[in-house]
């Protein structure tokens, strides 16, 4: 009796429209919801978190605990102040002019009348340095501070840590000189006359490709791998894994531990990734998913998920085809969830029609 009174005191639900659960979750669906430090208004129109907010996916504001902020209206405008806050500010009006400290994989990006002129830096961690790239009339002409340059598609030269790569009349002619390196196939020479043939001749790899990359056969000290014919059949046998694939119908992979080579896990797929048999999970996309931890999804009818305290939460229906979308659960899923339950080793709490009917079954 006391447990029932406590449940009613901490949970209030009026159909799918209003719900207050615990101390940090309240929803007036579909207009507004709040859970922890996240607030949604007509999701996905507006979402706010502790230090950021987003409007219609293309307007975004982010502040940083150590100082600084960023505001953007994609793809036209951005401005902000780098971390820490006493660093100089930055802004950009695309494609007129702009400077951005970090966007995508590019650092200290600058542009003027894009694509007329662009400059950016990228890290080279293994070389412990930064590489600066300049581009004029992107992508036609570019040069880098390491001597790389290109006039696409006529000719290009790229200096990398483990090789020098060149092309002429891209993509027809490509060749590469590789240097001694423990992480790759070692020193050697590779060439490609696309789309007919390619050859890789290196210390730890010998590979021929015909109609690259559709047909290939490679020999390495650890074993071999092949793809024939025309991408549909692939075999791989080496120290890291055994793989057999008849794309898109069947694939079987045995992954091996790097140290002693014993079997680490085994994966079987049918219909590319429509059916997957994993070590701890079985998937039949999108209709069935089951895991060893108790998770079960029979889309669109049923879903059971483990909770942090060892209990299981179930619901019917479960219409949204993608798992783990908290915003959908906060704002929309209640409209089609007619039945819910929470099960522990002692009993199961049931809720039907958004809490209008509740009962408990003892195990």
Secondary-structure blueprint:
Elements: H1 2-10, E1 11-14, E2 18-21, E3 25-28, E4 32-35, E5 38-41, E6 46-48, E7 52-55, E8 59-63, E9 69-73, E10 77-81, E11 89-93, E12 97-103, E13 106-112, E14 117-124, E15 129-136, E16 141-144, E17 149-151, E18 155-159, E19 163-168, E20 173-178, E21 188-193, E22 197-202, E23 205-210, E24 215-220, E25 223-227, E26 233-237, E27 241-246, E28 250-256, E29 263-270, E30 275-277, E31 281-284, E32 288-291, E33 296-298, E34 302-306, E35 312-316, H2 326-331, E36 339-343, E37 347-352, E38 357-362
Antiparallel strand pairs: 1-2, 2-3, 3-4, 4-5, 5-6, 6-7, 7-8, 8-9, 9-10, 10-11, 11-12, 12-13, 13-14, 14-15, 15-16, 16-17, 17-18, 18-19, 19-20, 20-21, 21-22, 22-23, 23-24, 24-25, 25-26, 26-27, 27-28, 28-29, 29-30, 30-31, 31-32, 32-33, 33-34, 34-35, 35-36, 36-37, 37-38
Number of strands: 38
Structural class by secondary-structure content: mainly beta
Multimeric organization: single chain
Sheet having the most strands: 38 strands, antiparallel
What overall form do the CA principal axes indicate?
A: flat
Beta-strand percentage? over 45%
For the residues shown, what is the average pLDDT? 89
Intertermini distance: 17 Å
């Amino acid at each position: 009796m006391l447990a029932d009174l406590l449940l009613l005191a901490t949970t209030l639900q009026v159909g799918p429209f209003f719900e207050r659960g615990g101390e940090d979750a309240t929803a007036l669906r579909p207009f507004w919801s709040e859970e922890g430090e996240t607030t949604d208004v007509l999701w996905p129109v507006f979402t706010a978190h502790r230090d950021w907010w987003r409007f219609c996916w293309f307007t975004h504001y982010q502040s940083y605990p150590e100082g600084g902020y960023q505001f953007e209206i994609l793809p036209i405008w951005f401005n902000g102040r780098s971390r820490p806050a006493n660093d100089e500010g930055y802004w950009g009006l695309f494609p007129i002019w702009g400077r951005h400290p970090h966007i995508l994989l590019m650092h200290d990006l600058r542009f003027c009348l894009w694509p007329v002129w662009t400059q950016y830096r990228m890290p080279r961690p293994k070389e412990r340095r930064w590489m600066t790239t300049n581009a004029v009339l992107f992508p036609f002409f570019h040069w880098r501070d390491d001597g790389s340059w290109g006039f696409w598609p006529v000719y290009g030269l790229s200096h990398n840590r483990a090789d020098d790569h060149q092309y002429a009349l891209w993509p027809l002619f490509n060749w590469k000189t590789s240097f001694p390196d423990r992480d790759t196939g070692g020193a050697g020479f590779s060439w490609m006359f696309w789309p007919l043939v390619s050859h890789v001749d290196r210390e730890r790899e010998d590979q021929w490709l015909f109609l690259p990359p559709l047909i290939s056969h490679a020999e390495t000290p650890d074993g071999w791998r092949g793809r024939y014919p025309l991408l549909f059949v692939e075999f791989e046998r080496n120290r890291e894994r055994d793989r057999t694939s008849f794309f898109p119908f069947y694939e079987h992979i045995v992954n091996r531990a790097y140290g002693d080579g014993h079997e680490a896990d085994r994966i079987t797929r049918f219909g590319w990734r429509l059916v997957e048999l994993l070590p701890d999970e079985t998937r039949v996309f999108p209709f069935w998913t089951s895991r060893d931890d108790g998770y079960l999804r029979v889309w669109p009818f049923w879903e059971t998920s483990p909770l942090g305290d060892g209990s299981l939460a179930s619901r019917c229906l479960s219409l949204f085809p993608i798992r783990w979308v908290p915003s959908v659960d906060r704002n929309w899923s209640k409209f089609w969830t007619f039945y819910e339950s929470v099960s522990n080793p002692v009993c199961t709490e049931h809720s039907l029609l958004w809490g209008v009917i509740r009962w408990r079954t003892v195990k």
